[in-house]
């Protein structure tokens, strides 16, 4: 049975964000700004429904979805694109596939102890973020 990820998570660290954003064609000014942000995550996980909020001082991004059901995700706040997105479990990892203009786009969430790990991919770039569960 997959873990329940419900909780609030504080930013701990990230690696390779600038190159990941470059792969998404984000301009240099916005890339530098995003690399300075320290986002928090809030996850509400009820059965097959999830809401994932990425919270920053600049703007919040909310994903609201049913597991295993493809939906159109508006990534306008991120890079101006729309994707056909499906989120499902692969073992203990929550896996998101975002089909659209960029090859190999998506992410994975998983827990290690009380830390939430996020691995984001676009083209050949990988960014890893770590968050500490606080409640």
Automatic annotation (TrEMBL):
GO terms for molecular function: lipid binding. InterPro entries: Calycin (IPR012674), Fatty_acid-bd (IPR000463), ILBP (IPR031259). SUPFAM superfamilies: Lipocalins. Belongs to the calycin superfamily. Fatty-acid binding protein (FABP) family. Monomer. This is RET5 protein. It comes from Cettia cetti. The lineage of its organism: Eukaryota, Metazoa, Chordata, Craniata, Vertebrata. The gene is Rbp5.
